């Protein structure tokens, strides 16, 4: 498919999907994910409703979610102080786990734990929610599926990492139980609306500022099969699959490509190993990069002119050859981020991102 037959102006859906084919669309797609606090403040400041604010930002995506419903109502990772696995959380944002109920459990204790029922993932409104956007925007769907995080919460991070070496059967048993819930939830979601979902979007943070939290050997033993199984599910419905992953994890990118991940979000260039030019050169024709514009320093602390310059610099590195979606280097734009800076970033993407 050559540039000569591409439409001059694409829909958001066309723009995003052709980027996954590593072809430059009419302009670089725009992504904007924010904290609830930033979102509400931005809407109020501009006098817009949710959809009006998305359109002002130029967001090419719409994210449709299926909530987990338990006996006390909705309890999802990030929306409640209690996760579907019974983990109490408190603190800023999604908070931190206050208990690790399986840290001392044996295999029988893991099996006997009251695991959540995937049938309580409510898919009844999915098609209705997608319908207004299905022809125009790229639809994100699937469950967030943070099975790595939930295993850490259930076992405790140091305990889990240690047992990866000392008690592999224990770790496999725990992680299989956690993953089985999320995989079944995704099966329900795709059975209901897989024909309308363009991208399965899920999140597991594998990196820190200093590099990956686990080596490739441990990733391949404990996580690779699960990532691959989710990728196969998405691909069976002709959907793409995109992983949200914070921090530096460059050493894991070849394995992520091998297991079928189509896109990576949000690419933090300030973290070790995440130099944008290097990533683009090495993997720019194998996996889509989403994000990349520094939100740890520039977007929060910079002037509008500094944001403008960083956005231009990032687009010039990442745009050539497609395979790039532009936005902040973290999905959770914090409430202290100046709205003007975010608007400058999104407007420059729209202007400079045009196909030459």
Characterization of this structure:
There is one protein chain. This protein is α/β, with parallel strands linked by helices and 356 residues long. The protein has a domain at 1-62 and 235-356. The chain contains 14 helices and 13 strands. The strands form 4 sheets. It has a 7-stranded parallel beta sheet with strand order 1-6-7-10-11-12-13. β11, α11 and β12 form a beta-alpha-beta unit. α6 crosses α7 (157-166) and α6 (147-155) runs antiparallel to α8 (168-193).
What's the quick description here?
With 356 residues, the chain is α/β, with parallel strands linked by helices. The protein is built from 14 helices and 13 strands. The chain has a domain at 1-62 and 235-356.
Arrangement of strands in the largest sheet: 1-6-7-10-11-12-13
> Share of helix among residues?
40-55%
Question: Ends: how far apart?
Answer: 17 Å
Shape: globular
**Major sheet characteristics:** 7 strands, parallel
- Number of helix segments? 14
Task: Write the element-wise H/E pattern from the N-terminal end onward.
Answer: HHHEEEEEHHEHHHEEEHEHEHEHHEH
Strand content: 5-15%
Rg from C-alpha positions? 20 Å
User: What value does the average pLDDT take?
Assistant: 93
Low-pLDDT segments: 71-80
Instruction: Classify the secondary structure makeup into a structural class.
Output: alpha/beta
- By DSSP, the count of extended strands is 13
């Amino acid at each position: 498919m050559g540039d000569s037959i591409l439409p001059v102006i694409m829909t958001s859906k066309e723009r995003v999907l052709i980027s996954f084919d590593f072809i430059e669309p009419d302009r670089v797609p725009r992504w904007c994910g924010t904290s609830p606090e930033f979102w509400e403040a931005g809407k109020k400041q501009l006098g817009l409703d949710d959809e009006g604010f998305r359109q002002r930002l130029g967001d090419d995506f719409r994210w449709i979610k299926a909530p987990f419903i338990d006996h006390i109502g909705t309890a999802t990772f990030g929306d409640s102080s209690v996760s579907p696995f019974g983990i109490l959380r408190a603190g800023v944002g999604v908070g931190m786990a206050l208990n690790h109920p399986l840290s001392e459990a044996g295999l029988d204790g893991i099996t006997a734990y009251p695991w959540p029922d995937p049938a309580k993932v409510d898919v009844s409104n999915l098609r209705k929610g997608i319908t207004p956007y299905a022809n125009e925007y790229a639809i994100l769907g699937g469950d967030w599926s943070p099975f790595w995080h939930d295993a850490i919460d259930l076992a405790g991070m140091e305990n889990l990492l240690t047992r990866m070496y000392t008690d592999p059967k224990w770790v496999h048993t725990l992680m299989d139980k956690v993953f089985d819930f999320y995989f079944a939830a995704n099966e329900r979601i795709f059975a209901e609306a897989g024909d309308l979902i363009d991208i399965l979007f899920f999140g597991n943070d594998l990196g820190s500022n200093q590099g990956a939290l686990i080596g490739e050997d441990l990733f391949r033993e404990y996580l690779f099969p699960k990532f691959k199984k989710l990728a196969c599910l998405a691909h069976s419905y002709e959907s793409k699959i995109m992983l949200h992953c914070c921090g530096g994890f460059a050493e894991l990118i070849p394995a992520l490509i091998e297991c079928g991940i189509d896109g990576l979000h949000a690419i933090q260039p300030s973290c070790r190993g995440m130099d944008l030019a290097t990533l683009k050169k090495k993997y720019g024709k194998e996996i889509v990069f989403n994000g990349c514009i520094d939100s740890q320093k520039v977007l929060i602390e910079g002037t509008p002119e500094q944001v403008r310059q960083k956005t231009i610099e990032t687009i010039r590195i990442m745009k050539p050859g497609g395979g790039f979606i532009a936005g902040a280097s973290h999905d959770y734009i914090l409430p202290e981020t100046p709205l003007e800076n975010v608007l400058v970033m999104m407007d420059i993407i729209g202007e400079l991102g045009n196909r030459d």
